[in-house]
Amino acid sequence: MKRPETRIIHTRGARLGTVTVNPPVERASTVLFKTEKALYDSKPGYGRMGLSVHRELEAALSELEGGSHVRLTSNGLQACVLAIASCVKSGGHILIPDSAYGPTARFCERRLKYMGVSATRYDPRIGAGIVDLIRPETQAIFMESPGSLTFEVSDIPAITAVAREHGVTTIADNTWGAGYFHKPLALGADIVVQAMTKYIVGHADAFGGAVMTSDDRLYNRIAMASEDFGISLAPDDAYLCLRGMRTLHTRLRAHEAAALDLAAWLAERPEVSEVLHPALPSSPDHTLWKRDFTGSSGLFGVVLNAIPEGGMDRFLGALHLFGMGFSWGGYESLLIPCDHQLTRSKDSWTATRAGPLLRIHVGLEAVSDLKAELDSAFAALKGPA
């Protein structure tokens, strides 16, 4: 059995004509056929359904996540929405973690309400205790591990075991683990989703999402929902996603090493109250992370101690290597303040924080340069000597 990084590089989809290292990019809406039978029997029969590069990307994603079926979407949020919408119907109920990606939670709490589906948030560390939140009408449990912004690790095997006992479908957002460091399908999840925009693309120059499963019945529901919504992924974006997959292993290992180095350095800083990174031994989730993950990515959180007035503006103004912008997973480092987008169903998490919450994505720069810049930014935060 070849190693995963080898299999991902050498996975090829079925092609016609000349065999090349990379698949052709067919920018086509219309596919032409010779006969009426071929017109109506062929799959795909229309460019929106994907052509050569899409099939090859699907094959590589199946290898990566260990699923037998893949449905591509135009971005990560759309992947989450597609998976959720395929599992719930009017009168139903869904459970979502309190640490879910904000737009995913928004869809469940705003849009699903108009569709007659209610949503309840749960503590991402609830584990098997989620049984107490399952109702007769509960149809799905959404998981995201680690959670967005605060990076709690969920006990996916415990949650999925309870869900199976009650006939509830489970969906896991695996963007942080990128399908390489974490395998939710192997841990019991029914469906896994990824924002390919992040690590799979890896260069901050394209969008993409994917929904994966090994369950034929669930895949049929996902495929029908995708067709009903008219979801598709542009061929050039599919190509960039596939290109990124071929170097995923090398880039992730570099992100992992740099992020662990920087996280450990930050944990010793007097300006820092807490580093939110499950791979650090100091993390309350470290044991669970060590059991269910084979590595860690470049994204983590930092809680600062109380800062003086105007300190955050001075801190951010001193950053040049760290860009301030949404998304992550590319080759450049990013740092954003998160208090404006942090929402929790209760005030327990936010009330106990010492100071502002930051999210850091460590890119592929030299870690020594990143440390030097943060050292200067911390000095600026304190104000004039």
Automatic annotation (TrEMBL):
This is Cystathionine beta-lyase. The keyword Lyase applies. One of its GO terms (molecular function) is cysteine-S-conjugate beta-lyase activity. Belongs to the trans-sulfuration enzymes family. It catalyses: L,L-cystathionine + H2O = L-homocysteine + pyruvate + NH4(+). Its cofactor is pyridoxal 5'-phosphate. Keywords: Lyase, Pyridoxal phosphate. It comes from Hyphomonas jannaschiana VP2. PANTHER family: CYSTATHIONINE BETA-LYASE-RELATED. GO terms for biological process: L-cysteine catabolic process to pyruvate; transsulfuration. InterPro entries: Cys/Met-Metab_PyrdxlP-dep_enz, Cys_b_lyase_bac, PyrdxlP-dep_Trfase, PyrdxlP-dep_Trfase_major, PyrdxlP-dep_Trfase_small. It holds the Pfam family Cys_Met_Meta_PP. The modification N6-(pyridoxal phosphate)lysine is found at residue 198.
